[in-house]
Amino acid sequence: MMNVLGTVISEQQIAAGNAAMVGQFRLSDVVHALTRAGVPHDNYVAGRAADRLLQKARKAGRISAVTNKLWRSTAA
How far apart are CA 12 and CA 72, in angstroms? Predict the structure, then answer.
């Protein structure tokens, strides 16, 4: 689980965000996946959660930046 701006993000919601990181994708793709999984979009909770997931995936070497707005899965 992860706490973002006082909102608890469940493992299922985190998995939905991680599942959106395939091929080439944008931060907004991860935000939409989290929102569909029930993460609130108000107060930028979904956006901040998506940003934290991207940071973790980048540090783990699972994704890399293509441009400043486009990411690529290194497994693809």
Answer: 22
Q: Which of 55, 47, 45, 50 is nearest to 6 (CA)?
A: 45
- The CATH T-level fold of domain 2-73 is Arc Repressor Mutant, subunit A (1.10.10)
Check if the beta carbon of residue 39 is closer than 8 Å to that of residue 46.
Answer: yes
pLDDT per residue over 20-37, tens digit each? 999 999 999 999 999 999
Domain ranges of the chain: 2-73
One-letter amino acid at 6 equals G
Distances in Å between the Cα of 67 and the Cα atoms of 52, 61, 70, 72 are: 18, 16, 5, 9
